[in-house]
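Entry 14. Ran structure prediction on the chain below.
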Amino acid sequence: MSEYVISQVYPSDKRALAQIEALLEQEGIRRDRNLDYICAMFDEDYQVIATGSCFANTLRCFAVDQAHQGEGLLNQVITHLMEVQYGRGNSHLFLYTKISTAKFFRDLGFYEIARVEDKLVFMENRRNGFSDYLARLSRSRTDGINGALVMNANPFTLGHQYLAETAAAQCDTLHLFIVSEEASLVPFPVRKRLVLDGVAHLPNVICHDSGPYIISSATFPSYFLKDAEDVITSHAMLDLAVFVRIAEALSISCRFVGEEPFSQVTGIYNQVMAQRLPQAGIQCRIVPRREADGTPISASAVREYLKTGQFDRLERLVPASTLDYFRSPEAEPVLERIRGAEEVRHY
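Output, structure tokens:
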């Protein structure tokens, strides 16, 4: 054991990366595109015998060579990754694992949040992390008909505003969850501010940060799944398993979603929600998109106009509060980020 060394693997180390990919493939896993730290355990001949990776505050892509299983190597890899995360200042950690290995991670101090049977378990390293989140949400619980809306708002458009207005008119209280993960061109503090400004005229809307529990595609472990549609469907099912618990905490009986004519991901999400939510006693209401000049309003189009500086075309797509922000000097760092992006439309 003393000959085994764990170290970071950099993108330039093609030899080690090729070995890691081969090792992951043996376990039915492909290397995730969303990784910001990769480590490997090497034997005395500098052959990769175990590996693990991180993205943000998640742990992922674990594998141990079959010839070395039973030696406790995965435990050492996880310990190494947790030390890396603690060094980054991340103490609240998440991971996704196969059903068959969930017990191993429970023994390492991870606790189950939700699962998709026969596929995945979503876990965290805080015993009461999710229950504390639900307890905080429950303080906003109200009587009457409670609805829910989840939006990324990258950025907030007249389409988002119409969706919020339509949903708010159909319930006594609308709980609007803003996806708080930083996986968008418009940073979360700006997205949140624009949402709050854009729904300020709706007195029955309560806004919440999604936190780490309403899952985004950036953290989802696509490396477990074989094809794109299976990835999206499984992501949606796991997201809904979490959402059902949130709905129980807030007595939510209806979730509103915007009709999706452009994005394959969101379109499949909507299909899964329409099928699965009623099984949990929650209505799913799909709201038609608001249009401008005969075309559904999309945040992707707004980002395209921001990228190319066509501000005159934004007036029919975004509320005055959003337009005022992007015309202000304060928005310049965000505009630079958008202008520097190779692709601003998401499909």
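The chain has eleven helices and 14 strands. Will compare against last week's run tomorrow.
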